[in-house]
Amino acid sequence: MARLTDIGWNEFHALPLEAKRPYLERVEGGGMPYHTLFAQQFDRPILERLCALANRIRFINKSKEGALYLKSVLAHKRAMLYFSQPSSRTFLSHLAACQILGVTTGSVRDAATSSEFKGESHEDSIRTFSSYFDMIIMRSPEQGLAEKMSWELSNSSRPIPILNAGSGKDQHPTQALLDIYTLFRSFENKGGIDGKTVVFCGDLMRGRTVRSLSYLLTNFKDVRQVFVAPQELRVPDDVIAVLEEKGVDFKVSDDLQAAVRTADAVYMTRIQDEWDESKGASAKIDTSRFKFGAEELKLLPADGIIMHPLPRRDEIATCCDHDPRAMYWRQMRNGMWIRAALIASTFGFEKSIMECGY
Ligand code: CP
After folding, report:
1. Per residue in 210-256, pLDDT tens?
2. Which residue among 44, 88, 151, 218 is least packed, with the fewest CB closer than 10 Å?
3. 8 A C-beta contact, residue 216 and residue 39
């Protein structure tokens, strides 16, 4: 089995993402990740196992006895939530997932409140967290930081797993897991995810959730991907290159209404102007044709769903919120269950939860 202790950082860093996967797996985890860094670590069997575990945790948690059992599963573990970028959902759903499993948590939500403010390096900060905790769940504006820290920790005397809760403009693997779980549940009795058309719309250039989800969808059969965005915010070439290499049917378009007519799922995203290189650059882009409102709702097929990683601004009109096809609130809650499944499996408790008597 490949281990991060067997490979130097430069050599590991230079590998294609899919080739990194074996180095990040849990020993005897049957392919389950130990460090969760990017979507390329998940194939279909692993996604199906995680969705089944999330369903199981959701079910067990319904009864008081079941909830108390779940709280005992990881009562001996502590997790650090290290978020140096703003977050509501990803922070809170990981926190709630930890609470479901009995994991005790600590947090830093602003580097200005940690000793990084005094000049401590990320490496030293992470090493400090690993002295007190058994897992680090981290969000950072820096692409690749979670990967570097995983290698550092695995090569330290306190190797503990890292979950990437969003890295730069690059990847958001646990968001993609909750998106897949939402699609999995939405189409459970409608033929599953295979054969569906997923329309991505909005800021596709800087949306890390889009990159991660687009990759995860390649694990399913005959899923068509349609990318609708203003010219300035078009889906990046690296995402297209993956789809071409895998022979995925995809289309790049600027016509949201035409795409909605053929969609099984419409995945709206907000304009990510926090990444603007010059202040106010995004405000100059005409985004008026890339919003989902009452007209689009009429065009969406009866079995279609509307998704959004949230937070939203005005790209989905609030008049859509009570439509049964609006899945974004459920999507948010699904994040708590699938993250609980990921945390439990990271610590090796998949089998015992699946087989418990509740
Ligand atoms: N979807 C998402 O990452 O939301 P937050 O930024 O609120 O965590």
Report:
1. 999 999 999 999 999 999 999 999 999 999 999 999 999 999 999 99
2. 88
3. yes
Structure letter (DSSP) for residue 183: H
Q: What is the pLDDT of residues 251-275, one digit of tens each?
A: 999 999 999 999 999 999 999 998 9
If you count them, how many residues does the chain have? 358
**Neighbouring residues of 101: CB distance < 8 A, sequence distance ≥ 6:** 70, 71, 73, 74, 77, 340, 343, 344, 349
Q: Are residues 319 and 297 in the same domain?
A: yes
Cβ-proximal residues to 194 (8 Å cutoff; 6+ apart), any chain: 220, 221, 222, 223
Is 330 annotated in the active site? no
333 is an active site residue:
no
| Cα(84)–Cα(138) distance, integer angstroms | 8
Q: State the pairing for strand pair 224-228/197-201.
A: parallel
Residue 238 and residue 347 in one domain: no
Q: For residues 161 and 30, state if they share a domain.
A: yes
What are the DSSP E strand ranges found in the chain? 78-83, 104-108, 135-140, 162-167, 197-201, 224-228, 250-253, 265-268, 305-307
The SS3 call for residue 321 is coil
Count of structural domains within the chain: 2
Q: What is the number of other CB atoms lying within 10 angstroms of the CB of residue 249?
A: 11
What's the rounded mean pLDDT across residues 288-315? Answer: 97
The helix/strand/coil state of 165 is strand
Question: Could you say which of 78, 89, 148, 224 is catalytic?
Answer: 89
Please indicate whether residue 312, judged by its CB atom, sits closer than 6 Å to ligand 1: no
What tens digit of pLDDT does each residue of 340-354 get?
999 999 999 999 999
Joined tokens for residue 203: 């800021």
Select which of 35, 49, 58, 139 is catalytic. 139
> Cα torsion at 119, 95, 208, 213 (round to 10°)?
150
CATH code of the domain in which 226 resides? 3.40.50.1370
Ligand 1 neighbour 89 (Cβ under 6 A):
yes
With a CB cutoff of 8 Å and minimum separation 6, the contacts of 211 are 39, 170, 171, 172, 236, 238, 239
